[in-house]
UniProtKB/TrEMBL annotation, chain A:
Keywords: Membrane, NAD, Translocase, Transmembrane, Transmembrane helix. This is NuoM family protein. Residues 125-411 form the NADH:quinone oxidoreductase/Mrp antiporter transmembrane domain. The chain crosses the membrane at residues 68-95, 107-125, 131-148, 160-180, 192-216, 236-255, 267-289, 296-316, 328-345, 366-388, 400-420, 441-461. It comes from the Bacteria. InterPro entries: NADH4_N, NADH_Q_OxRdtase_chainM/4, NADH_UbQ_OxRdtase, ND/Mrp_TM. It is found in: Endomembrane system; Membrane. The keyword Acetylation does not apply. It comes from Rufibacter roseus. Residues 70-119 form the NADH:ubiquinone oxidoreductase chain 4 N-terminal domain. The lineage of its organism: Bacteria, Pseudomonadati, Bacteroidota, Cytophagia, Cytophagales.
TrEMBL record, chain B:
Residues 147-436 form the NADH:quinone oxidoreductase/Mrp antiporter transmembrane domain. This is NADH-quinone oxidoreductase subunit L. InterPro entries: NADH_UbQ_OxRdtase_chlpt_su5_C (IPR002128), NADHpl_OxRdtase_5_subgr (IPR018393), ND/Mrp_TM (IPR001750), NU5C-like (IPR003945), Proton_antipo_N (IPR001516). Its main location: membrane. It is a multi-pass membrane protein. NCBIfam families: NDH_I_L, PRK06590.1. Keywords: Membrane, NAD, NADP, Plastoquinone, Quinone, Translocase, Transmembrane, Transmembrane helix. The lineage of its organism: Bacteria, Pseudomonadati, Bacteroidota, Cytophagia, Cytophagales. The gene is nuoL.
From TrEMBL, chain C:
It is an enzyme of class 7 (translocase). GO terms for molecular function: NADH dehydrogenase (quinone) (non-electrogenic) activity. Its EC number is 7.1.1.-. Belongs to the complex I subunit 4L family. This is NADH-quinone oxidoreductase subunit K. The keyword Membrane applies. It comes from Rufibacter roseus.
Amino acid sequence: MLTALLILWPALAALLVLLVKGQGAKKVAFGAALVELLLGIYAWANFNPNVVEPQFLLNEPWVASAGILFKVGIDGISLLLVLLTVFLIPLIILASFKNNYDRPSSFFALILFMQTGLIGVFTALDAFLFYFFWEVALIPVYFIAAMWGGENRIKVTFKFFLYTVFGSLFMLAAFVYLYFQTPGTHSSEDQAFYALVLSGDTQSWLFWFLFIAFAIKMPVFPFHTWQPDTYTTAPAAGTMLLSGIMLKMGIYGALRWLLPVVPLGVSQWATVALVLAIIGIIYGAIIAIRQQDMKRVVAFSSISHVGLIAAGLFTLNEQGLQGVMIQMLSHGINVVGLFFIIDIIQRRIGTRDIAAMGGITQNAPFMTVCFMILMLGAVALPLTNGFVGEFLLLFGVFRYEAWMGAVAGITIILGAVYMLRMFQRVMFGVKNEITQGFTDLTASEKAVLIPLVVMVFWIGLHPNTFLSLSEPAVLHLLEVIKR
Amino acid sequence: MQELTIATNTDMMWVCLLIPLLPLIGFLINGLGFRRIPKGLASVVGCAAVIGSFVLSLYLFLSFEEQGNRAYVTPLFDWIYVVALSIPFSFQIDQLSLIMLLLVTGVGSVIHIYSAGYMSHDEGFGKFFAFLNLFVFSMLLLVMGSNYVMMFIGWEGVGLCSYLLIGFWNKVTPYNNAAKKAFIMNRIGDLGFLLGIFLIFITFGSVSYGEVFNQASQNLSDVSHGTIVAITLLLFVGAMGKSAQIPLFTWLPDAMAGPTPVSALIHAATMVTAGIYMVIRSNVLYTLAPETLEVVAIIGLATALFAATIGLFQNDIKKVLAYSTVSQLGYMFLALGVMAYSSSLFHVLTHAFFKALLFLGAGSVIHAMSGEQDMRRMGGLKKVLPITFLTFLIGTLAISGIPPFAGFFSKDELLAHVFQHSKIMWAFGLLTSFMTAFYMFRLLYLTFYGNFRGTEEQRHHLHESPASMTIPLIILAILSTIGGFMGLPEVFSENHMLANYLSPIYDFSRRAVPSAFETQHLSHEMEYILMAVSVAVAVIAIILAYVIYGKKRTVPAEDGEYSGLHKLVYNKYYIDELYNGLFVKPVMGLSTGLYRFVEKGIIDPIVNGFGHGVLGGGRWLRFLQSGAVGSYMLLMVLGIALILLLNFII
Amino acid sequence: MNEIPEVIRTIPLNYYLYFSTALFVIGIIGVLTRRNAIIIFMCIELMLNSVNLLLTAFSAYRSDPNGQIFVFFIMAVAAAEVAVGLAIIVMIYRNLRSTDVNILNRLKW
């Protein structure tokens, strides 16, 4: 029941928020998100990390005649993502407090509605239910980006929407095919899919159908071109939702519905997928070096980081997959923090152009510290969260194939290049007329950044808190894959 | 055989924990309280933290001997644990880490005290102490860690502090660029280090020193020779970055943009010797890979020689010292390459003393000259800065290898080992030594002798530095004078204190390759001859420097007046420009090119192509909707006819 | 009442086939070539009736009344169709002063 509550509460709260007129909506939304956070923490507290099976299971018939279930539950892998979602959503809502959007009640209701979709995706244990939530999560972010976005928003958002739906169709087709392969009266339950024994050829094309859907969402090179434009155009909250949580849907989907369902297909194509991911790592990082728009720098850096996570997925070893888990959290935290800082800068001085800035650190020491810590997390400095993930991921890739590890490792050099360049141009140097009157963080901004910074160090200093949660589930997953 | 024990004594654990923790606390206090804590308190907190850990290190050092010189590990907690890959957060205390602890905290304390005077006028005073403390914390993690990943934490941590401190005056763009360059070049090395760690784990199933070395020395897991060579080479790439060896050395001269105490602490005494520490720590692996050792020796020698030639013609006082540091680091790697691990560490120690002294002395000069660093604007400072001059002279004598100063003993021992390995290398080493003595005395004469060549305003401001700066100079001068006696050569004394003390850390190496450690002593006559030759070479260089810069009072020409070889060397062989053209520009070009031509020229158009395809298809297909009822009906009839036809055929 | 099928059976079945095919083709050609809506309409009726005729013929030859019942249904539906269709044509004529179908191409692309 707890899982169902986690899914339903934000949707109910969204309806409530819609009723509130004016700027009071954001407070109600924030309160609702905090309740959700408490629910998440309650789930964490009652979670038994030694059990492999999903906990807090709810298993009701949904489309009974077709054997489709409303089956949701939380195992170690789901739990980390649920925690990430419930942790980030209140911060994202709080981060939007100062933006004074039109129609605030719709805006905040959409964020909460999105949370329902996200939690649904991360807990669904039935293929069609997963697909349902997958699309549900897409709708609110489409409206957020299309209604409150910047210049050119309709075109960019439309492209994003169509691109993702295009990918989802492949997934749906694959699910339908798999559904009809299940014995008896058919079932779309996760275990039923895992139990299927399909020929290598079938798995081979099924792999690509599923991979394309997830690769577009992540996004993996070369399916990434919607991402920089969308991140740049969407309002800050939308960008944070997309980059912080939504792209994890793709990774999670691959963990739950790709690797264990078509293991033979994965073993056939893992090298190709890894090469694509590694190209993405280097490609994203190199392009990020010369971007002038701060959001674009982070957007391309995100392609690079996600490339590494995707590479970790296909290493199919313990370190790689645990790296995926921890890096999903780290990346979510870092990228949300970085986008928030960019939003703060944009609110203050009205531009995101790196060339126009300089010397901000002299006016905003507190922001400098937060920015620097998040940046160091992103460039994977030891004792910050990014290092644990990148270390495990690179090790996983290195174990899979040494030269791939070496090439993927170039990311730690290029990461330093683009991040330090941006940081230096924005924060250091001499103040100019644009950055002259820059003010340091306000209390509500601190309230967003401090939890993020704390998490950077928590994961960096004691990653076992989170690694131990997902370890049994990940090991079980590997058993299923290698059966 | 040195067995590692797990420390059970909780007192010891606390001491081990407190040593790095104190500077961390200092960092937090000064960092969080920056701009709120008064300068006096900030310096007290900063200095007390490091002096505190120095005292604790000393205590640890003494109690280590009391407890029978047994190395131990103090586990704190499991840091990363993923199935077989277990990385504990734990410290290893043995002879090597103790020496490094004393060096880092000792020299660190002296430099902290110096900074209290040197930085007293700076608005970022508290921030400076915070960063220095953070550096000491990272460096302590580096030397105390009990596994390679712990070393990597410190390794990257010191890189970060180096970045922060080089770019300390962050309003100045060239300084920021220097900082960025240092960080990125270090990262290149770090990647090698990281891959080395991966390979170590895959080969030995552990990253803890004790486990890895034990396995390597007995070759329990049947590791191929090629793997060991690969591991050591990868680790050495890391060392190249951190210790500024060819080809990753260009960041160190630029790093002189930072405040002078930083150059003394980070870029001379401690951080840059991390690479040497790492090789000594991994001595088993290196001993097993003679090919790598040969590479190490050649790169070390090449760096020593190359950097020394550049040092000959530099006019910036700190740049001369920077190239001299690069050159001396090359020396240390040369020693490592001929398996003279202890001699290398000996030189690390003496070098830390006299190079820190020289940098701090230079800082005192710069302080007096109101920030001027160009030696062509100095001269005749002997009378105004007597203490600085005297201590600086001691440092210069020490680095030049004049007995009985510290540098003589370490350099002599080092060169003797090189002589045993290869006469040619020894000759080049001697040449480097000659150049070192020459450029150091050139620096001394240009700075302290002759007439004052600065502006009137600078002359007006000339003053000896305050006590907080001169006392550290004196301490370091004493250390530079007597430091060499911890490793007297055989001809003078049977007891080489340092080598004997460090002996247990080579136990694994001895077990792995017993032949490599068979002592083959030089005859006493030979030793005397070698000593005499190296002293003679230094003296000739000093005389030469005296004739040119002391007696004739030659002052180097202004920039732009150089030609030919001189110009080439003065511009550092255009290595920076070469790297710029070879790496930086292509990557930048690639960045723009990929974005413009691949991203916006190929991939995105393909994606948009799908959209345009659908649009275009619609544009053509809509003509079927002609609106003419007749044509609809014709099509309908044709359709029915077609279906009937197909019905007949199929 | 048995006379009618017998009368029908006096003519060979093939003749009915030829005849109704001819009628149907005439209808099609009329539909395709004429532009006057009323004539097109009549041609459609012709096609319907050709089918009706065939249905009746088969029904008689097979002694199965279903075919003839079907014809009644078709006639009823056609009558309704005529009512609606003619009404539309009248409205079109009132608006456009013409019943030429080629004028009615407002729905093109």
